[in-house]
Amino acid sequence: ACRTVGFTIAGEAVDVTNKDSTGQFRELLAAAGIASMQVSVAGLLAGGTQDIDFANRAGSRSLDLYTLNFDSANTVAGSFQVTSFGVTGGYNDAQEFSATLESSGAWTLA
Questions:
Q1: Over its length of 110 residues, how does the chain's per-residue pLDDT go in tens digits?
Q2: Is-contact 63 107, C-beta < 8 A?
Q3: Distance between CA atoms of 106 and 109, rounded to whole angstroms?
């Protein structure tokens, strides 16, 4: 069960500054560059095959469709790759997991 879910949206800037730029200030090209999303999740392993599933997806570097629901009622949907997965837990403690997913292609935020 996830305890925390977060996302970061990144947009790569394309610099088109040249010697004729007004005041020699940087100029960026609108609506250009690469847009991406990184999703981080962490929580408790609740038994079953959750850990094996995430570990296999990270190991195979597959692209899978995910729909993530946030407490704020936002939803993120798209194709993502599990780029990291880890499990921790001490003696007599609950096992915790963390994972990072990276977007591939278009995604939606609603």
A1: 778 888 899 999 999 999 999 888 999 999 889 999 999 999 888 777 777 888 899 999 999 999 988 877 889 999 999 999 999 987 887 889 999 999 999 999 88
A2: no
A3: 10
